[in-house]
Amino acid sequence: MVTKAFSTLNAVLLWMLTAACIKTGRPQIARRAIDLAEARMLKDCWPEYYDGKLGRYIGKQARKYQTWSIAGYLVAKMMLEDPSHLGMISLEEDKQMKPVIRRSSSWNC
C-alpha cells in the first residue's frame, strides 16, 4: 500500500504524511514512504512531481533538483528521527500524539 501511496505522493506532501503517521502512532508507514522516496527521488534527480495514473513517470514539465522536493524529504526525515519536531507544525489542539501501535506477533501479512 505504501508503494502505491508514494507513487502518487508528491515529495512536498511527504512531510504531511509523516506528521499524520506520527500523530496516529504509525511511524512505520512513514519510514517506508521515506525509504521509497529516498531511493526513487535520488535516482530521478529530485523532480517536481510525477505523472500518470500510478505516478510512475516524471512529469513532462517537471523540473529537477527542486528545493521543495528536497525540503519536504528532509523535514519528513527529521520528524521521524525526533517526533518532538511535530510540535512546530501542529495546531495547539493537536499537540497530543497517540502511542505507537504495534502488531501482535500472531498477525502475519
From TrEMBL:
Residues annotated as transmembrane: none
SUPFAM superfamilies attached to this UniProt entry: Six-hairpin glycosidases
GO biological process, one term: sucrose catabolic process
Annotated signal sequence range: 1-21
Coiled coil: none
InterPro entries assigned to the protein according to its UniProt record, in alphabetical order: 6-hairpin_glycosidase_sf, Glyco_hydro_100
Keywords in alphabetical order: Carbohydrate metabolism, Glycosidase, Hydrolase, Signal
GO molecular-function terms, A-Z: endo-alpha-N-acetylgalactosaminidase activity; sucrose alpha-glucosidase activity
Pfam families reported for this sequence: Glyco_hydro_100
Protein name per the record: Uncharacterized protein
Source species of the chain: Citrus clementina (Clementine)
